[in-house]
Each structure stands twice: as structure tokens, then as C-alpha cells.
Design a protein that fits this description.
- The relative contact order is 0.14.
- The chain is built from 5 helices and 3 strands.
- It is elongated, with a radius of gyration of 20 Å.
- The longest helix is centred in the last third of the chain and has 11 residues.
- By secondary structure, it is of the alpha+beta class.
- The chain has one domain.
């Protein structure tokens, strides 16, 4: 979490496709609010490496608001750039003598 104008500078510096998403909701609420929340909105703009720079003021004025949580947008962004789902590797390294001690998440989550 950072002031959006400070983070938006990446659009000027990046030499690759850049997707910038700005959400409403305040400091934490915009991040932790799950999909389906009725009062959240967000703006998202993808800039190809050859596209003209869109300054922060123009981004804010010209990029349409989308209703709802930004999470489904992020999920679609990740899916587009990810391969097929695969089974996670086995825990530990038994061949090297390291057996898993416990199933995840371990005992530390129960400590007070």
C-alpha cells in the first residue's frame, strides 16, 4: 500500500506492458474486501510498451470505473499469464534426509 501517485510512476519507467489498477475503499478496505461487495469500484488500464504514456490525471479522469471488487480482475490477469495448474511438490527433501515435520501450516499458528 502506497500513495497511488507515487506508484503510478511505474507507467513512465517500465519498458514492458504495464497494468495499473486503482481501487476505492481506503487504506485496507480496498485490498481486503472480497468480491461481491456492493460499494467498491476500481479503475484498470493496461499500457502496451508502444502506447503513449497516460498521465495520472488523465488516467483518473478517462479510465472508466468498474463496479465491485478488483479481485476477479486480478485473477483474470494472473490466469492469462499463468500456465496450467500443477500439483505442488512434496514437502521436505527425503532423499537429502529432510522429512516434513508436520503438515502445513505447522504448530506455530497455534502458539499464543
Amino acid at each position: 500500500m502506497a500513495p497511488w501517485l507515487s506508484v503510478y510512476k511505474i507507467n513512465r519507467l517500465a519498458r514492458t506492458e504495464t497494468t495499473f489498477l486503482l481501487t476505492t475503499g481506503g487504506h485496507n478496505a480496498g485490498i481486503v474486501t472480497p468480491p461481491g461487495h456492493p460499494r467498491r469500484k476500481y479503475q484498470v488500464h493496461t499500457r502496451d510498451v508502444h502506447d503513449r504514456y497516460l498521465g495520472p490525471r488523465r488516467f483518473h479522469l478517462e479510465t472508466p470505473y468498474q463496479d465491485g471488487s478488483w479481485w476477479p480482475e486480478w485473477e483474470a490477469w494472473l490466469a492469462k499469464r499463468s500456465g496450467n495448474r500443477v500439483k505442488p511438490p512434496a514437502m521436505g527433501a527425503p532423499k537429502a534426509g529432510y522429512k516434513p515435520l508436520l503438515d502445513a501450516p505447522g504448530e506455530y499458528v497455534l502458539m499464543k
